[in-house]
Amino acid sequence: MSYVIDRRLNGKNKSTVNRQRFLRRYREHIKKAVEEAVSRRSITDMEHGEQISIPGRDIDEPVLHHGRGGNQTIVHPGNKEFTAGEHIARPQGGGGSGGGKGKPGNSGEGMDEFVFQITQEEFLEFMFEDLELPNLVKRNLAGMDTFKTVRAGIANEGNPSRINIVRTLRSAHARRIALTGSSRAKLREVKAELERLRREEPDNFGDIKALEAEVERLSARIHRLPFLDTFDLKYNLLVKHPNPSSKAVMFCLMDVSGSMTQATKDIAKRFFILLYLFLKRNYDKIEVVFIRHHTSAREVDEEEFFYSRETGGTIVSSALKLMQEIMAERYPANEWNIYAAQASDGDNWNDDSPICRDILAKQIMPFVQYYTYVEITPREHQALWFEYERIGEQFADAFAQQQLVTAADIYPVFRELFQRRLVT
Amino acid sequence: MTAQEQKRQPLSVGSEWTFELIQTYDREISRIAERYALDTYPNQIEVITAEQMMDAYASVGMPLGYHHWSYGKHFLSTEKSYTRGQMGLAYEIVINSDPCIAYLMEENTMCMQALVIAHACYGHNSFFKGNYLFRTWTDASSIIDYLVFAKQYIMQCEERHGVDAVEELLDSCHALMNYGVDRYKRPYPISAEEERRRQKDREEHLQRQINDLWRTIPRSAGKAHDADEGRFPAEPQENILYFIEKHAPLLEPWQREVVRIVRKIAQYFYPQRQTQVMNEGWATFWHYTLLNDLYDEGLVTDGFMMEFLQSHTSVVYQPGYDSPYYSGINPYALGFAMFRDIRRICEHPDEEDRQWFPDIAGSDWLSTLKFAMGSFKDESFILQFLSPKVIRDLKLFSILDDDQRDDLLVPAIHDETGYRQIREALAAQYNLGNREPNIQIWRVDRRCDRSLTLRHTQYNRKPLGESTEDVLRHLHRLWGFDVHLETVQGDQVVKTHHMPPRSDASEGDYGRMDMAVVHL
């Protein structure tokens, strides 16, 4: 006697606990791999997980087993050319028939790298880890888009709380009319005939009886039709629209003068990624403009932005000017939400800094949603920082600046930005 | 032929399965199995998704395993190779329990489901019920309850003592899992209810015993410890985890309970590790026989049969030693060939068979086969039943690999003079006692530094593998004091391992500390 049970519906994701345990145990490895991936990937490419590989040695579960060597006789199948008592050369490279089978050691040797996939959520989780983001923000960045439910007419299916009573009754009525049409036409005829008989031949009891019975039968038939049937039910249809569905442009400005090292640029990249992710959750369409500058500014692609080296001095205003030009040309402020993120090590020609403030205050700040500036340096602030502080005073709710030494310092720049967004 | 074609009324055509069809096939297969008087536990057939299958696979088929990162690791690697199509999933997982639980994967075709039903629900199932190892060492009726108990207990421990503490302990226990079995002594069957009832008593009782053991009131200071104390343990102990559970000085009661859980589960799997060839061979033999009977009765189509034979042949495929796919002897191939050959020897013996197997040649094949299934394990099964014909068919040969010689020797091949040697060598290869290093608890220094000494008796000069140090580190964590491992050949100690690794300075430190303990 056998029982057949369908277990497909329960016990889904039963292994998630074990999986989480595994990720927890090897979080250092995974974090390193994620860090590498972050510097390798484009900042707009945060939509998928990552392949992680961990050296097999670190992940082995040790057991007591025999090692190589000693004296062992092993039986193999498929003999072709050997005869009993024959001596054969030891195969080179350690493998082959001498390697033996069935020893637990083999699995350890065969698996040099343990490779597996983490999901996008897990990837972001690990990436955010050393940014010290509050959980609410993490969810906001990594989680689902927010939706607005919009009425979109009437549907035949739905849940009972959404029944549209007027439409339902109307369609029930229509159905009753449609289905009883012929019966009622007949009933009318029969009634007219009955009327006529009663009036003209009141003695013709036989026919009147028959017609009365017919009337009864037809009315009963009409009444048998259900007042409300399942397919009369109409529901209000609500569809989800991503919210809000507007466009944003993100300007990335970075100093690429000789004083910016690759490590500094990597921190800057994290900063840009964070801003990008934030925008991604809030806007449907995002464009990214990369502007790099030393003494002159240029719009470049991402690869060149992060990975080409320049030497020479620094004139920040050149980048701001270029940004202003691009804004005016391609991104009218009434169509686009404009965000800007600027990263630098704080160096600038001294007499250029007041010019920067001027351009920012007059030509940029009035049009942007938020401007963030990070100075990646452990050194003292220079003129640019103090000029920007004045901007901060002037546009307190749309400007943030922060000094970064490690990646963990990035988040405070966004704190206000997130708070603002989370409230609205 | 045409007459037979017309008679053919298949149970189904096409490859889609439904629950009704599964039941129909199961009924038919069960009817045929009854003809062969296969004695089985009742079957519980569960249809699951590929993900669930990977999950079950990752936790070594335990449907209710406790949580541990290593299962997560197995899951990830299975998932990876499955999603990339590098590996088909195991078609079936079957659990030695009463009722016998078999998993069918929803992706399988009807033909595969029927194959799995025949293989798992009638093949493996009857093996679990009939083989002496399973009968003596496992209790099919209580394993599910016990797993539930173990899972809950470990979850409670995690809540009480933290995930990390439990994980560390489990890591250490897993490292020694293969040394957590009684090889010769029959264990008491485990029953979950009793476990729960006795667990409290045991905690208290155990702790008292341990305190007795470690009572360190020095007798007369002048006497040599070893002489008057006698050895402890009196006999070398093969079950290392058992010894830890009962005698480790520093473990908390809950830790002893966790050690016990791992040990009990190891014991439950021990028969499976000893009967791979027989178990798979038996199940393969029966799915082959049962489905062929279905075909002979006209209950399945030719297409069904082609699909079945295709997967059957790939299951029993044995690549040669020089093939890139070779990874040792395929237990399905060897076991299937042997059971088939036993049947042949019974039904159509030739001169050679009468000479080699005078007892079974010409006997009733079914009862001989059942006897072979019931009373042996891989090692003895091969020693008893590996016939010259199977050796010839598989072209078996042996290789002697001696690290003291420059070349390899072929001591025997599949010929008249070689059959016996091959048979013995192959049987020895399946002897778990040879496959795993023989390591036993040798001595505990109760009077001095409480160190634990293990003794590894070398077999054929085989050295220990490279993870030995790691395992000793785990043992050291469980024992709490120094651990030594001596490798002996005959009476001579040829190599020693120490944990913590021995350097002169640290040795002095440990010595002094423990002296202080003794004098207190």
From TrEMBL, chain A:
Bias kind Gly residues: ranges: 92-108
Region Disordered: start-end pairs: 85-111
Family of the protein in this entry: Belongs to the UPF0229 family.
PANTHER family: UPF0229 PROTEIN YEAH
Protein name: UPF0229 protein HAQ05_00160
Species per Swiss-Prot/TrEMBL record: Pseudomonas typographi
From TrEMBL, chain B:
Top-level taxon of origin: Bacteria
One Pfam short name: SpoVR_C
Domain SpoVR-like C-terminal: start-end pairs: 437-489
Domain annotation SpoVR protein-like N-terminal: ranges: 16-434
NCBIfam families in the cross-refs: PRK11767.1
PANTHER family from the UniProt entry: STAGE V SPORULATION PROTEIN R
Name used for this protein in its record: SpoVR family protein
Protein source organism: Pseudomonas typographi
